[in-house]
Amino acid sequence: MPSSVNIVLVHGAFADGSGWEGVYRALKKSGHKVSVVQHATETLVGDVAATNIVLDAQDGPVVLVGHSYGGVVITEAGNHAKVKALVYIAAFAPDAGESVSSLIANPPPGAAAPPILPPRDGFLFLDTAKFHDAFCADVDADKAAFMADSQLPWGLGALGGAITKPAWKSKPSWYLIAGGDKMIPPPAQKLMSQRAGSTVVEVAASHAVYVSQPGTVADLIEKAAAAIG
């Protein structure tokens, strides 16, 4: 892959950037320059600002990657001039005026309800007892327990943050659908990826596919890197 292509990884809700370690290592092994955004998931505006700081520091074209709520962040931050491609990993891909709140308001019939607890001081958490099954069913129990006990609080301001200009309308995108996802229903992922005109790959995996199958995720990112390289 061309060394001039940079890859920036953006995590989603209830997790931080450390979850990208497997993907990061796979991409670095292939010779890419990889950066991981550590944003607070408190507000969309703040998360986009944190992502833009990392994008400003890149020395060439960027493939911008988002998992879950991170897809909302890259949809807005992807308008940055250095971003040449977007990659959604089991992620939200909102249109203008949409937010996570609006996208989840009418779930597909029969979709699993994520075990999100009532807000505490403006933040959301997943029920730790149900975290493994809902978020990362294909990750081993010890790792899932650590992920549950170290989850990052998700701010209601991030949940309700609306997109002003969706980058996927002007830039090419790739989308990995997680067929066993219990957080974002696969039918919803299919609809969003089709609407965005994304190149789509579907795999049998949980919502945490970037943790359980880092090689598969890295392969899709490399396809995007090759396309812009």
Automatic annotation (TrEMBL):
Every AB hydrolase-1 domain range = 7-219
Alphabetically list the UniProt keywords: Hydrolase
What InterPro entries does the database record attribute to this sequence? AB_hydrolase_1 (IPR000073), AB_hydrolase_fold (IPR029058), Sec-Metab_Biosynth_Hydrolase (IPR052897)
Which residues belong to the signal peptide in this entry? none
SUPFAM superfamilies (alphabetical): alpha/beta-Hydrolases (SSF53474)
Entry-linked Pfam families: Abhydrolase_6
Q: What Gene3D superfamilies does the record point to?
A: alpha/beta hydrolase (3.40.50.1820)
Instruction: State one molecular function term (GO).
Output: hydrolase activity
Protein name according to UniProt: Alpha/beta hydrolase
